[in-house]
Amino acid sequence: MSNKSRKPVTPTLPPEVAAEAGATGVSGQGNQAMMQKLFDRQRSPPIQSARAGGMFQELQYPLLQDRPGAQVGTRENYNLSFRDKSGYKGSTSEAFLNKAGGGSKWKGLRLDHGPNVKTNGQTNWHWNQKGAMNAFGQPNHAVTSPATAKVASALKAVKPAARGAMLVGAGMDAYSVGSEAHESMQTGDWDNTIDEGARVAGGWAGAYAGAKTMGALGAGLGTMVAPGMGTVVGGAVGGFLGGMAGYMGGSALGQWAANQGQ
């Protein structure tokens, strides 16, 4: 919540009610203080920034350099996403390298964990591609290396956890702004609400900008090292770290801007 000083709001109870509540009042206040302390700890800037970094999987990252096209001598543009862009029913893919401007039908490379027709229907990690062989050098249905499979399995486990953490973080920030607004309605002083609203808005805007920028940079660098899996890992790590840094920087900038206007 906002660190600004507030006007105290002291409720007044009738003497007989106050006397009756005296025995349990101290215990209740102690529990409330403990819960507030726990809440404040859980929404500390480092923890909230890590939650905001979870938005990496919700974004799309353009590759900085075009890749070799399906036709000799041509170049084509791709982007990375962690949400299904293929439109295939029942897709079991976890990462997508989408060909930009590919028309109504999806083209690109997918990192997939499911039955593989090249291994007699066995479930394994493999690449599915359409029109992207020259771009990333992965044949259709090619089984990944054991190292790639381990990284892909980690990505599959991290994605739902990161999304849940992001939603928790957004909910905690929304609750914090609502609490400040409730207090402002009691005191008539709205500076604390403006301050907290600016911090939260700046934080999430910064997380988005940071994740988009660093995710694209990471995907580009990863492609230079290992086209395909390097693209996926670089984009995920860059997006996560960029979201964290963006949230912290945006929060500080939002608070500074709010203080300047008061």
Task: Explain what this protein looks like in three dimensions.
- With 262 residues, the chain is α+β, with helices and mostly antiparallel strands.
- 57% of the residues lie in helices and 15% in strands.
- It has helices at 15-42, 45-52, 133-136, 146-187, 191-225, 229-260; strands at residues 60-62, 67-68, 75-76, 78-81, 93-99, 108-116, 122-130, 142-143.
- The protein has a 6-stranded antiparallel sheet with strand order 1-4-5-6-7-8. The chain has a two-stranded antiparallel ribbon with strand order 2-3.
- Helix 2 (45-52) crosses helix 4 and helix 5 runs antiparallel to helix 6.
- The protein is elongated and about 70 Å long.
Distance between the termini: 17 Å
| Unreliable sequence segments | 5-13
Number-wise, the strands total 8
Overall shape: it is elongated
The helix count comes to 6
Strand order of the main beta sheet, please?
1-4-5-6-7-8
Rg of Cα set = 25 Å
Task: Report the structural category.
Answer: alpha+beta
Content of β-strand: 5-15%
- Overall pLDDT: 88
Q: What is the helix/strand order? A: HHEEEEEEEHEHHH
Helix residue percentage: 55-70%
Main sheet makeup: 6 strands, antiparallel
List keywords for this structure.
single chain, 8 strands, 6 helices, elongated, six-stranded antiparallel sheet, alpha+beta, 15% strand
Topology:
Elements (H helix, E strand, L loop, with lengths): L14 H28 L2 H8 L7 E3 L4 E2 L6 E2 L1 E4 L11 E7 L8 E9 L5 E9 L2 H4 L5 E2 L2 H42 L3 H35 L3 H32 L2
Antiparallel strand pairs: 1-4, 2-3, 4-5, 5-6, 6-7, 7-8
